[in-house]
Amino acid sequence: MSQSQRPLEVACPQCRKKVEWREDNPYRPFCSERCRLIDLGAWADGSHRIAGEPAMDETEIDEMILRAERGFQDEP
Predict the structure, then answer these.
(1) DSSP code string of 19-62
(2) For the whole model, what pTM was predicted?
């Protein structure tokens, strides 16, 4: 990057503070480790989630596998 070009500035996803998008920022796109950890905690507790169909739980997956295995065993 030349001296005349300024790095891209983005808003921290957590606190909205302006942050320079640079390779030497270990918390990018966040402004700090604190904001990064707050965001990680929100994903961990389910506050942040990606919209879509709910995921199957383990018991549903086990039942589906058992049904499939039984179906394969019934064939000659």
Answers:
(1) EE--TT-TTTTSSSHHHHHHHHHHHHTTSS---SSPPPPHHHHH
(2) 0.58
Q: Are strands 18-20 and 9-11 parallel, antiparallel or unpaired?
A: antiparallel
Q: Which helix (H) or strand (E) holds 73?
A: helix 58-74
Q: What is the pLDDT of residues 17-52, one digit of tens each?
A: 999 999 999 999 999 999 999 999 999 998 888 888
* The dihedral formed by the CA atoms of 37, 41, 47 and 51, expressed in degrees to the nearest 10: 80
Q: Which of 32, 30, 8, 12 is nearest to 20 (CA)?
A: 8
Residue entry with tokens 């990606």: 50
Please check whether residue 31 is in contact with residue 19, taking contact to mean a CB–CB distance below 8 angstroms: yes
